[in-house]
Amino acid sequence: MIPFTKLTSVAAPLKVINVDTDMIIPKQYLKTIKRTGLGSALFSEMRYDEQGKENPDFVLNKSAYRNAEILIAGDNFGCGSSREHAPWALLDFGIKCVISTSFADIFYNNCFKNGILPIVVTQGELDKLFDDATRGSNATISVDLASQDIKGPDGGSIKFEVDPWRKHCLINGLDDIALTMAKKPVIEAYEAKAAGERAWL
Asked: Fewer CB atoms near the end CB (10 Å): N or C, the chain?
């Protein structure tokens, strides 16, 4: 997992509440177990029309936001079914941070496990970030995980909370596999001892 330390990017404003995981990545794309290749299908039902052509009104199709790495979203983001493909699609598109007033629990947990930082802010703070984001390429937002701080284009600052263990894992790029591999010497020592004590197994 790529470490998350500090991110400065244009932020895409998605002023929609209750964005569920089927809106993030529709069910027909769930056949794969690969974490790559899903970015083109992110928000596909909003990004494309029935002929597969881009909807020019959708935020990520606008030139200012095509390379956005931060998404500012409405309340209750990531609700619905528990599909890990949702953060996979966001990350494959390039989104590394999602900011909202609330997230569905499973989606929130899956973000951390896949290298995405979900940040919870107040409604007033979200409204200010939406205002900043609508300025497009003329305004970038910086997210510093170490200091737990969001800085807007006008110098304003918003502090956010994050679980210390999840913060540690993101900053050091540690997913569940990496955390297990860090215990490799202990695991190997146990296996060797067990093999000697129970050779018949």
From this structure: C
| Alpha-carbon span 11 to 135, nearest angstrom | 9
Residues 6+ away with beta carbon under 8 Å from 173: 1, 2, 3, 4, 115
The H-assigned helical ranges of 7-64 are: 21-24, 44-47
pTM comes to 0.88
Q: Are strands 117-120 and 97-100 parallel, antiparallel or unpaired?
A: parallel
Query: pLDDT digit string (tens) for 94-140?
Result: 999 999 999 999 999 999 999 999 999 999 999 999 999 999 887 89
- Tell me the domains of the chain and their CATH numbers: 6-173 (3.20.19.10)
125-152 burial, b for 16+ CB within 10 Å, e for fewer? bbebbbebbbbbeebbbebebeeeebbb
In percent, the amount of the chain with pLDDT more than 90 equals: 74
